[in-house]
Design brief:
The longest helix has 26 residues. The chain has 21 helices and 9 strands. A hairpin with a 5-residue loop joins strand 3 and strand 4. By secondary structure, it is of the alpha/beta class.
Length: about 525
């Protein structure tokens, strides 16, 4: 490269305007040289460099940028290309050394040798269906890339095309799903300045977070059909093979398992920018429910986290550590209420709530214990919690004259002394564990008495995990880190739309179409 990154950072329109005409011309020559070198690097493939063939798109493997040329090796081995003197010398050598094969025999052996890969005339494994076309969509250049002249007439020569399958959504006036096939045709136009302009399908650069997940307009599966595949995968919980079977039997579309998997991953990459909007809304919420459940990524044990606010649901698959909490809420202190269980990483939040459903279940377990002391402590805890829960529910209907904590001060003090006695005297067991838990989170547990408008349970987060737990039991988790990332992104977008009373599939269709075209991601739909 002629210009370094340090020099490019300093070049802008103002610096160019300050140069003389000769200096601008010299700079343009340098930029042109660097641009050509950069394009040559981008155009490297398995035929002109050491780039592995597996990294190329299927439609790029069979095409060539230059005209077909004869192989020099084949020309050297062609017997018809030999001169008469060469033939005579070959015959003389053959007579002089009868035990050695002649040059002609060696040539025939080389020609009959099997070359690697698919042989000419062999049956391939490509698509065999000839789906009828339902229309054409033409793509022409708008202006010249060199001189900037606008093209008024949509003329030119078609140089490439591809077919795309998509669906028409049903409604009350037109129920059902219809499949249509559109051929996208791309044109090139010769400008008066001599420059040839081509309109090409938009292809997004690789993403560092999601490697080998291509986002492009050149796709067999349209954005609407892609949203349907994501619905079958996430909401209906079908495997890739079952999705393939459904599309073939019900819609007459035959797609490979690999294509279906690429569609799901591509949809997740298109929805990746939505995650920033979800996190920002989560940080601004006044109440967040958080919960986690185990999740297997192949043989590694991870955790599926969920954060639920009034209008946002966000999922992550990561380790069960404090690092994720800090990444979600950022460096600044979260100003809202956090509803959680008793996991210790949540203790850093000052405005925290404890789920009483967990405490009730533990107290009920002790009440059903065979140990008399544990049974008595469980019944006492259960009675106190039920009494206070009824008081909170009544306070929501009619606010009391005094805070609930003052109305039940004596009962709370007596119960606290009971927990302290069990902590000191009782041996290690469930009774002592519950007593220690109540004492450690005493203020957090009973802060609801002074704020009866807040929730008593963490039901919102547990319900948000329910469908994911069912899917986990069917699929046994994910196989790769990329698959975990894609699942969490799609689940966040889909469940947020459902929480807002909007169709996630229509929104996901718009997100995929915008991502393929390189456009900004559409804003999340507002609550209905």
């Amino acid at each position: 490269m002629t210009l370094s990154d340090h020099s490019l950072r300093q070049i802008d329109e103002e610096s160019i305007d300050s140069l003389s005409e000769d200096a601008v011309r010299a700079l343009a020559v340098k930029l042109l040289k660097d641009l050509k070198e950069a394009r040559e690097r981008l155009n490297r493939n398995s035929r002109n460099s050491s780039v592995p063939p597996g990294s190329e798109a299927p439609w790029d493997k069979g095409s060539k940028d230059s005209d077909d040329e004869e192989d020099d090796t084949d020309a050297l081995l062609d017997p018809e290309g030999m001169t008469e003197s060469d033939s005579d010398s070959s015959e003389e050598d053959s007579e002089a050394h009868p035990e050695e094969p002649s040059q002609t025999q060696a040539t025939e052996k080389n020609e009959s040798a099997r070359k690697p890969g698919k042989q000419p005339g062999a049956q391939g494994f490509g698509r065999v269906e000839n789906i009828p076309l339902h229309g054409h969509e033409h793509h022409h250049p708008d202006s010249c890339a060199l001189c900037g002249q606008a093209f008024s007439e949509q003329t030119g020569t078609a140089y490439t095309a591809f077919d795309q399958l998509d669906i028409q959504w049903g409604d009350a006036q037109r129920p059902g799903i219809a499949v249509f096939n559109i051929r996208h045709v791309y044109y090139e136009i010769d400008c008066q300045c001599g420059h040839t302009n081509r309109e090409a399908p938009c292809r997004q650069p690789e993403d560092e977070l999601l490697e080998r997940v291509e986002l492009s307009q050149w796709r067999l599966v349209g954005s609407g059909l892609a949203a349907l595949i994501v619905c079958l995968f996430y909401r209906i919980r079908l495997s890739r093979q079952r999705i393939r079977e459904f599309l073939r039997d019900w819609l007459g579309i035959t797609l490979g398992v690999g294509t279906i998997n690429k569609v799901i991953h591509e949809s997740g990459r298109a929805a990746l920018p939505v995650e920033e909007e979800l996190v920002e809304e989560l940080r601004q919420s006044i109440l967040t429910h958080v919960d986690e459940t185990s999740w297997h990524e192949r043989i590694q044990l991870l955790w599926l986290w969920v954060f639920v606010s009034a209008n946002v649901i966000v999922y992550w698959i990561a380790h069960r550590t404090e690092e994720l909490i800090k990444n979600v809420f950022g460096e600044q202190e979260y100003k809202g209420w956090l509803m959680s269980d008793g996991y210790k990483v949540y203790r850093q939040f000052l405005k925290r709530l404890r789920c009483w459903a967990h405490l009730v279940r533990k107290a009920r377990g002790l009440a059903e214990s065979l140990d008399k002391r544990s049974q008595a402590f469980g019944k006492k805890t259960l009675d106190l919690l039920h009494t206070l829960m009824d008081a909170v529910k009544d306070a929501r209907k009619k606010p009391p004259d005094r805070p609930i904590s003052q109305l039940y001060r004596e009962q709370l003090e007596e119960y606290r002394h009971t927990c302290e006695r069990i902590e000191e005297a009782a041996p290690a067991g469930k009774a002592r564990a519950l007593a220690v838990e109540m004492l450690n989170d005493w203020d957090v547990i009973f802060t609801i008495l002074d704020n009866p408008h807040l929730p008593l349970t963490n039901n919102e987060a547990e319900r948000a995990l329910r469908h994911c737990v069912i899917l986990r039991k069917i699929s046994h988790g994910t196989k790769t880190h990329q698959g975990s990332r894609i699942f969490a992104i799609l689940a966040s977008v889909i469940e947020t739309c459902r929480l807002r009373g909007r169709s996630p599939w229509r929104y996901l269709e718009a997100v995929i179409a915008a991502g393929r075209a390189g456009l900004p991601v559409p804003a999340l739909p507002v609550a209905a």
